[in-house]
């Protein structure tokens, strides 16, 4: 019937992002620190809102596991955000294990065989299986992962690439 159940999450970047080198190298950070933060303008208000602390800055893709845990990519913040089945924020995952900071994660897919995260501009898909982490660098193919799916039966990773109007299929 389409009956509304609930909504959750609030705008803003996770606090640890502001301590990162990535943020400190950001063009907007320098502009904000050097000029905008000193002016009483509409733009000041925009940048103050832009850097609010919260949970979701640019949520792009979600998937759920069998327990109802919700995994959400936050493209701008570079995080995988995790909520429980009721929408309560769980400990944030900069990555699932010790991988480098995610670069614009845009796609996520959960299967019983693990969690897949696609980084659109980097052309990288990482497959997390417990303590095992497998990275697929698809940039040499020019792949831009905007959505993905793992077909266990065929052992295929299927990637939607909006940039090139292409569906890519890789045998794992």
Range of helix content: 10-25%
- Major sheet summary line: 4 strands, antiparallel
Whole-number radius of gyration?
A: 18 Å
Q: What is the count of β-strands?
A: 10
* Widest β-sheet, arrangement of strands: 4-5-6-7
Assembly form of the protein: single chain
Integer average pLDDT: 78
Number of helices: 3
- Identify low-pLDDT runs: 94-99
Structural class, by secondary structure, is: mainly beta
Give the strand content: 25-35%
Shape: globular
Straight-line N-to-C gap: 39 Å
**H-E string:** HHHEEEEEEEEEE
Question: What do these coordinates show?
Answer:
This protein is mainly beta and 172 residues long. Helix content is 12%, strand content 34%. It is built from three helices and ten strands. The chain has a four-stranded antiparallel beta sheet, with no helix packed on it. The protein has a three-stranded antiparallel beta sheet with strand order 1-2-3, with no helix packed on it. The chain is globular. Mean pLDDT is 78; it is low at 94-99.
Topology:
Blueprint: H1 21-24, H2 27-34, H3 42-50, E1 59-64, E2 70-74, E3 79-83, E4 105-111, E5 114-119, E6 124-129, E7 132-137, E8 147-151, E9 156-161, E10 166-171
Antiparallel strand pairs: 1-2, 2-3, 4-5, 5-6, 6-7, 8-9, 9-10
Concise overview:
This protein has 172 residues and is mainly beta.
Which properties best describe this structure?
four-stranded antiparallel beta sheet, 172 residues, mainly beta
